[in-house]
Amino acid sequence: MQAAKPLFSYRKHWAERLTPAPFLPMSRAEMIELDWDECDIILISGDAYVDLPSFGMAIIGRLLEAQGFRVGIIAQPDWRSAEPFRALGRPALFFGITAGNMDSMVNRYTSDRRIRRDDSYTPGAEGGKRPDRSVIVYAQRAREAFGDVPIVIGGIEASLRRTAHFDYWSEKVRRSVLLDAKADMLVFGNAERQVCEIAHRLAAGESIDAITNVRGTVCVSKGTPEGWIEIDSTQVDTPGALNPSVDPYASEAQRLAANAPAAGAPQAGTNVVRFIRQVSNADRGHSVVRLPSFEQVSEDKVLYAHASRVVHVESNPGNARALVQRHGDRDVWLNPPPIPLTTAEFDRVYELPYQRIPHPAYGVARIPAYEMIRFSIAIQRGCFGGCTFCSITEHEGRIIQSRSEDSVIREIESIRDNVPGFTGVISDLGGPTANMYRIHCKSRDIESACRRPSCVYPGICKNLNTDHAPLIKLYRRARAVPGVKKVLIASGVRYDLALESPEYVKELVTHHVGGYLKIAPEAIGEGPLSKMMKPGIGAYDRFKELFDKYSKAAGKEQYLIPYFIAAHPGTTDEDMLELALWLKRNSFRADQVQAFLPGPMATATAMYHTGKNPLRKVTRDSEEVIVPKGLRVRRLHKAFLRYHDAENWPMLRVALKRMGRTDLIGSQRHQLVPAMQPRGTGGLPEGKRRPGTPFRTQHSEDRPTLGRAGKRGGSRRPAR
């Protein structure tokens, strides 16, 4: 993998003498106190401003400040006019715009497209403080406020919409958000390297239009550069050789004619090769893959699935090529992903002078997301699991970036000494997953060349170093910090990976479980599991054996809480019935359940939209995927997960009769639902309830808790 310019090696901007600020200013009054006449960069976010490295806005703001720039923040502005976007004046360099830590549509709507009542990233959890498709709306208002200021969009909402993408909420394919937002540039993935380079180049006098070659960015292209090789992947693969055999008797003119670009192909000087799978290492740095156009993927689902596969194949920063996609009369150019941070860079980013509390402007108002994570620490980034429904790999990548032990311990000490309300309990040491810390490919050369979407599916790769010893050592050091009473692990444990280290499981269960441990089998049937890229239920069973063994040895009564997804592509009614019977046999009762939510860019979303499987080569007659669509079937699949809820019994009886499983209707122990309906339950229209009955939350997606019968446990499911 090529080396990147060290993150902290730039010559600092002249305004370094005016920074750092106690808090990044949110008002002109704060700017005056800092003796600023203007901001160099203004960040606009859909989240409240919390100066904590768990909030992306705070990381980017403090990092740019460390580079010598004056950074202001406009948090959750009223988008109904441009005036709130003028609050800090005109930025000298650019606006940086993000929807926040969550996609604004996921934040506001459930998987059944119901509006959520609350927003965890807002003071008082008040809902409705950000617009739908926040990135687009904020960019438009910023453009109204100051039309000549460059606009750079980023964060997870922009990152996952960097190409033409299926939008679940409108049930159509939408353009790259770069075009809809009318922004100058889009930053995808973790943005530290990109924003630093962009800021310094703009400060040096470059035009935003000239900055087109930054890794991890998307821009509108003026044409494929002279001398580049354009690989045409605008059609699905067809049977036969990928490239025609070379005719040894052909003249030079004939060979050139055979490889000549078709009508409408890029400008002269560009070599166009159709359906090639490899280019030489010498040519890789100046080759670009042309995806099917926005118009093509909008009209042709097979081409959409094909494009999705290409985007995911070209995701390893060690070998990814640039991508280009036509939108009308414009090309959207995607540079390769950013180079991951080194451990030293990662440490410095997380040890910038964060106040670790919300901005004082919020007073005593509670911000639930902050309350939940103020005592947690990120020790790693990225995930090589590759779960198809998850957005981590598309955003953070599958190469694990880990902090040093010393840096993590210093942050624990900082929390102990400075964060109000600390009682001695660290609520989490983790990241996207709990147990990928310092785990990586045994060979950097193999890692840089690999195009597998997962290092652990269908089995753990032989080239993966699965040593959990560094993580065990970190846990032990964290527990030994004076003033720390308990260190909990709340991030999701990748249990199939944990099985490679029984010592890790023992350490985890003995010292770091607070009564319940959530893990995610997601399904038990091979149909859905193969489309999720998740291990079989046998891995869960083996992990549970170790969990129970070490809990008993420690003299603790502890429970595993498995959670599952309903209505995922590849799932049949029979799969959900099998899962319901498994839950009943194991005495599990889901208090709340999660239905599959097709987020933009996810592989499972491509399955949902197209009915094709992009995990394999896509052709017109390639594998079809069963997709549970429509409110009726989605509610049925959730009802199977909540088989014990009397409100669901009428629906389940109808389904069981249709499936020929009337043997499961009755009051016997092996049967799923009773034949008789209790008075006062069932049969009401969706959303209605009888006077005097509590409001049920079974349709509150992303908030599942699951415990043994008679026990309830857990909290809101961590964002994927």
CATH class of the domain at 14-216: Alpha Beta
The CATH homologous superfamily of the domain at 14-216 is called Response regulator
CATH architecture of the domain at 14-216: 3-Layer(aba) Sandwich
**Sheet with most strands:** 11 strands, mixed
**First-last Cα distance:** 27 Å
- CATH topology assignment of the domain at 14-216: Rossmann fold
Helix content estimate? 25-40%
Radius of gyration: 26 Å
Write structural notes for this entry:
With 720 residues, this protein is α/β, with parallel strands linked by helices. Among the domains are: 14-216, Response regulator (Rossmann fold); 221-238 and 255-337; 571-685 and 695-720, no CATH class. A hairpin with a 4-residue loop joins strand 5 (165-167) and strand 6. Helix 11 runs antiparallel to helix 23 and helix 22 (573-585) runs parallel beside helix 24 (631-641). Mean pLDDT is 90; it is low at 238-246, 258-268 and 684-720.
Summarize the structure.
The chain is of the alpha/beta class. Helix content is 30%, strand content 13%. The strands form 8 sheets. Strands 2-1-3-4-7-8-13-12-11-9-10 form an 11-stranded mixed beta sheet, with helices on both faces. The chain has a 3-stranded parallel beta sheet with strand order 22-23-25. Strands 5-6 form a two-stranded antiparallel sheet.
